[in-house]
Amino acid sequence: MSREISPVLLAACGTIIGFIYVTLKVLYRLFAHPLNKYPGPFVAKISSLFGAFHACNTDLHVKTLKDHDRYGSVVRHGPNKLVFNTAGALRDIYRNDQVTKSKSYLASQRAPGVFNLFNAIDPRLHQQKRKLAGRFLNKKSIDAFELAMIQQIDIFIQQLGAHSVKGPINMTSQTKYLAIDIMGHLLFEYPLNLQTEATHHHMMYSRASFFFNVAFQIPSFVDLGIRNLQSLWSMFSRKRYVETLEQIIRSRLSQGQHVKNELQFLSAKMTIPQDDQEWIDDAKTEALWHMLAGSDTTSTLLSALCFYLARNPRCYQRLCLEVRSTFKEGVDIRGGPLLASCTYLRACIDEALRMTPPLPGTLWREELARDSTEPLIVDGHLIPKGTQVGVNTYAILHNKDYFPDPFTFKPERWLEGSDEANREAFAPFSLGSRGCLGKSMAYLEASLTMAKMLVAFDFTEASDMQATSKVGDKALEAQHPNVFHVRDSFAALHDGPFLNFRQVGL
């Protein structure tokens, strides 16, 4: 006569088996794993939840810097992760045909098998997509687009003048309005008009990068099929952001079917879908990442640059002298030899990028699946198969071996003859075939904007406003009060600085 097994007994057995499994896995990762010799935080050695926790707390970049200070140039930052902070590792990881993007990028897929430029792991597919997108961001295209960019920057200058009479201006908001307006024109020739109207101000906010950054730290999310962040955008982000993208795309599509050919890089496939809705769904996903990449990063750069100039009067005065002696009127400012001759302006931009990188985290990579037996070597370390490797941007740009006095704003370190900046360790836009396509455009946009600002206005920091955002690390902010601190949400999150503007000559 059979007996029924008690549910309580089943639950107890399951708990015991689960406990044994977890215990054995922890012991393996601590003592028998191929990476067990590498130092790092205890929790990071046994679980990817370490990275996810700090991604949720938006302080992973700060934690990584502290871990490098404690453990050295290579740190185990996950059961299968090694993070570096050396120029040699930058070269070996990001300029290496043996290496591709980590499968963690697949967490941003709209659906399995649907790839965009951001999450195309296969090098050949990525190269094809990059070539298509590059048509919008090569020198010829940027030169052609410059007039539209300048028109938006001129509106930005007008808005600074109009708003300055009302009190201090939050440069995070103002520069983001500018950057999103420029991206709307670049991608879709669409006037979003955030600088002059409130209609599309909801596009200031998207949590897509936050959710991706959390998923990015847990490779098993992809194995579990947790890839569709689009539902998270709808649930937690401001839904109007995605709806506005669709509105823009439909507006562009109404101009004719030729639009699909012009914007082929927005398609998930190398062949253009005939079905309009399929193409629109693809384009929304691709456009979201382009909008974030082109607006959040530029806003961070300009906000940080304003902060550092306001906090460093000597640098501010030197830059004013350079720009105002080169350009007498704002209408004279455009890309070309004169703007390129402003070497101190470029030095200030590079120093702001170094101190406050727009993408402060670690861009994870892994060895490409291949038949070759040649091992992957990173900065002298033999990397076991299945290991994710990366260089944390914030950590290497604050490595005192490459940048002495790393928490001090010193544009002079980038001028010819200085030995205080190691250019081989400077990669705020990443490197190699996966490096940022919009690098040249970002430099041009920042240079034009700052030059026009300084010809038109003098500015100072509002003394009664909190000018830096919180990264959740009070000690770091207290130790370095003259740093524009940001939060790590894949792209940097920040607030301020709050500036007072006065027209030059008044």
UniProtKB/TrEMBL annotation:
Q: Which Pfam families match?
A: p450
Q: Where does heme bind?
A: C436
Regions that span the bilayer: 6-28
Organism per entry:
Clonostachys byssicola
Gene Ontology MF, one:
iron ion binding
Annotated InterPro entries: Cyt_P450, Cyt_P450_CS, Cyt_P450_E_grp-I, Cyt_P450_sf, Cytochrome_P450_monoxygenase
Q: Which cofactor does it need?
A: heme
Question: So which residues are the signal peptide here?
Answer: none
Q: Which family does it belong to?
A: Belongs to the cytochrome P450 family.
Its keywords, alphabetically, are: Heme, Iron, Membrane, Metal-binding, Monooxygenase, Oxidoreductase, Transmembrane, Transmembrane helix
UniProt-recorded name of the protein: Cytochrome P450
